[in-house]
Structures are given as structure tokens and as C-alpha cells.
Amino acid sequence: MVRTPLVPAVLLLSGILASGFATGCGSDDDTVTSSPPDGVACAKVVSATDEKSLVSGLLNVGAGGCVVLTGSVTSTVPVVVGHDVTLVGAKGSRAALTVTTGAVGALGAISVTGDKAQLGNFDLLDAPGTGIAIVARSVRLFDVKVTGAKKAAVAVLPTTEGGSTATLENVAIEKSTYGLYAQGEGVEVTMTGGRVGENGGTSLSSGVGVVAAGGAKLTLDGVTVEKNEGTGVLFDGKSTRGLIKASTIAENRERGVWAQGLQGTLEAPALAIQDTQLTKNRIIGMGGIELKGIIIVGGSVKETVASPVPTNLAATEMIGDGIGILGGSTDFKIERTNFERNDRAAGVVDGSEVGIIIVGGKVDPGDSGLKFVVQNSKADVQIADADKSVPPKPLGISAPKIKVPAAL
Fold first, then answer.
1. Read out DSSP for 33-57?
2. 305 close to 278: Cβ distance less than 8 angstroms
3. In this predicted model, what pLDDT tens digit does every residue of 36-62 receive, in sequence order?
4. What's the angle, vertex CA 193, arms to CA 189 and CA 194, rounded to 5?
5. Burial class of residue 96 (count of CB atoms within 10 Å of its CB; 0-12, 13-18, 19+)
6. What share of residues in the chain are helix, strand, coil (percent, to 5)?
7. Rounded to an integer, what distance in angstroms lies between the CA atom of residue 41 and that of residue 86?
8. Could you tell me which of 289, 274, 304 has the C-alpha nearest to residue 364?
9. What is the model's pTM?
């Protein structure tokens, strides 16, 4: 389990903030100059128009209270959101928050350290490290936009006592080093709607749109993951679990969805992808290594773009495959999924042992003429003969173990 320095960070940040800003929030009549968005219930409302009122409000508003951002606020210290506290932009406007520096022990520009905390209706801009770090349970983010974080835009990590849970609703995560990050046993993240896009960096692991690793459970429902410089969605680790449904994974430069080491069964899959469109990703639409228990149902994998990559044949080849079932993967089932005009092949099964089933769906190989290619595999792979192709020589394979980036 990943351990996070929750208690030291909170004590340190509280000390920093209290020393400079614990002047009290005043009465409701003095401080309430704006209203929270409709549907947000508040036991008390404090307006935050500058750094002092923001930090003081968060320290003093108490459980059930709301701190309402108005306009553009810049803070020179990290922001801590505690138990059952809501930080929201004012109704009828779009607030923006910029945190310019970190502090020793701080987890993110915004550290959510209290259960039942909420963040909503504002933009977080240009965080010097991680944007929003969540180490708490039952946390909700809604209508938040995070851009320009130098590390993860949003990271959910376990507390020292156990897991963290977070729900993201219509959240936009953009133009950061990488996007949404969930790591650790007991961490559960559900993202509904929203976009993860245009995140970028220079290494293979940077620019990843979404990361789930170390036993985290991730659900993407109706999410668009697009135009990231790295992999669109990366799953890593034996006990990591994922569900992607009714989503769009498109135009990611280093594979659409890539999984490594996940272990489940067809009855209890480690990763399920349902009614999802994987379109115009580079290299591989969806693939992975050392997998067991993967199910793809419905949706489509199409127009995967060929890119030059080093292969197992000691050569650089243009690879643009819809599916890559690689590196000893087993118990992999694809049902009623359409494969259309992928640049090299609809799919490649290489080095697999047993339990590869591909049934239903339409296979349109496009200009390459290659449908599903089965090579270097002992298994009796269950694919209709009409959907198989045998190339004149073995296809080169790119099956890297992508390093999971650090969240903080």
C-alpha cells in the first residue's frame, strides 16, 4: 500500500496557515457576499475574495460549511480542505484559483484531507506540483477544471489509515504533465462525464491521461480521454481494477488504453470496457502484457494510426493495431466490438497461452488487408476463420512495460 504523509502535512500546513491568517471569519452578515451554486447545501457560507479570506475561511468555517470563491484568487500557500467542508465558485460566475508555491509536506496546491469534502465550480490554474491531492473518503469534485499542473492534475492516494474514495462529475483535466492519477489498495475513483485531454511531457510515462495502479479501482463513465501526449488510460498492477463504459478514448499519441500485469478472470474481470469508442489512437487502440481476465463488449476500435516504434524483431516498424493481446496474456474476451480501418491490423495476438475469444462484431481491415493476426501463440485462439489473416512474415511487436509516474 502506498503511504502518504497525511498527518505531518496537515499539521505543517495548518501551522503555516494559522500563524498568518487565523483571524476569524467574522459573522455571517460580515462575510457572506456571494452565494454557492444551486444544489449546494451549506450550514454556513464564507466569501473568499483574496488569499486571507480564503485561508481563514477554510480554517474556521467548520463541518458543513462552504467557502465561496469570487473572481480570481491567488494564494502563496497551499490550500487545505478539511472534513465536510465545501470549496466552490460563486453562483452565476466562474472563479479561478492559483496557488503559486508549495510547502514542505504539502500534497498538492489543494490538499483534500477531510472526509466528505467537496470542490466545485471553479478553475485551478498552473499548480507548481500536483493540482488536487485527495487523501480522504467520500470526496466529491464537480464542475472543476484543472489546467497546467506540473505533476498530476488530480491525484487520489490512500491515507495512513487506509483507502480514499472520490467521485468526479463533469471535471475537466487538461494541459498538465499528466491527468487523473489513482494509486494504492483501497483507493476507488469514479469519474462521470468530463474530459481528460492535452496532457503532455517528454518521457513515455508523462503525458498519460489517466493512471490506475497499485490496486486502485477506477471507473470511467461517459468520459472523453483525448489528445494526450502519452497513453490515454494506463492500468498497472495485479490487483488494480478498471471499468470503462460509454466513453471516448481518442487521438492519444502513445496508445489508447494500455494495461500491464492485471490479474482477474472472465467471470470477475480485472478490466472491462463496455460500449466505448477507441478512435485514432497511435500504435495500439487497446492492448497490454501479462494480462488475465479482460473483457471488451460493444463499442468500436477504429482508425488506429501507425507510428514508427522499435519492435521485438530488432527493427523499427510502423505499428497501428486495433488490439494487441501480448506477452503471455490469457482469458481475454472481445464480444460484439467493431474493428474498422486500423492502419496495420485489426488486432495482433502474440505469445498468448489460452482463453482468447473474439466473437461477433464487424472486422473491416481497411487498406492494410490485415484482420486478426495470431502468432507465437500455443493457444487455440477462438476467432472466426474469416476474421483471421496470415501475413507473409511475423509482425513486429511493441510491448513495453510503461513506468508508472510519481504522483507527488
1. -S-PPTT---SSEEEE-SHHHHHHH
2. no
3. 999 999 999 999 999 999 999 999 999
4. 95
5. middle
6. 10, 40, 50
7. 9
8. 304
9. 0.92
